[in-house]
Predict the structure of RNase H type-1 domain-containing protein.
Amino acid sequence: MNIAHHMKLGWSLVKEPGKLCNQGVPGPLLSHSTLAIPAAQLEKIVRDYNPVATSLSGLLIVSYRIRTHLWLTAHAQLMTNDRRFQLSLTESPVCTDCPTHVESLAHVFRDCWRARQMWDPLIAGRQRLTFYSSNFLSWLESNLANAYGFQGSCSWPLLFGVVLSKLWEWRNERCFNPSSTKPHSLQDILSYVQDIGLAYQFYHTVAPSSPHQGSQVIEVSWSPPREGWVNLATDGSSCGNPRAATAGGLLRDASGRWIVGFGANVGFCSAWHAELWAVFYGLHLAWAFGYSSIDLSIDYVLVVSLISSASSPVLNTLVSAIRKLLSRNWEVRVRHIYREGNRCVDWLANYSYGLPLGVR
């Protein structure tokens, strides 16, 4: 019997009965199904098999990729040098960064000096002895519930999961590409966690909810503004979270005539920050040209919600600056468009990767 497979299937049935792969199993677990196991009993089986699974079930704001990584870590399925040595896949079980230590899961994720570089700034000094001393499975479980003195604004379980995922990603990069000079930055991790938390917040508090509907085919194209108005289309682009980023935008009249456009290299930031920069530069450009009726079209729903919803919080100074621009003595209509109807500014944003820092 493949125990791991049955545990994953059971957990999916308990926690995600609406998934397409589970819809063929009737009932709330399904007294009429071939499994014929009550939900509470099956959940207890999963919990007893691995207590970390219970903690993972509450980690809803972590992406599925990170949750899967945590599951594999808790079940000792990752191919560390220690595990590879046991399977006769390598000649040595030691860590490539610490030649005197066996590369176990605990070493990769907690005890290696590279891991400590990430954890030490996050863990309060008086908590470090406890943090570094427990056995590995207990350590995983406790960190999904205990912040160990962490004082940051983001969720500790979320940050913990992301750090583990990045440590494993960086470890593999060093193994398969020893010449890589990619920096391992805690600041990159914190920025990535902030983006995840922001998306989760707006999904539940700002983004409009609507019942799921079947897919349909629609024709998408650029739509002109009303007579007497100008259309400001903007777009941002980023190669990572965060990585090199650009912004682009252009103004067109009601007949589709190009008035003016811009491209900007905005340095390093995430995709939604790049989108905000595009809006910021575009509004300044429209104001400088003296237009008073602006149809602002953006292909990023989150940015539309950030700048136009009165109920959304001001999350950074760039959002605040855009809202001040919108409050000036002019009329700006903000709307979402599909990316396929925004190809001109998408090209401008991609073209701007070759530009020096600043706006052109």
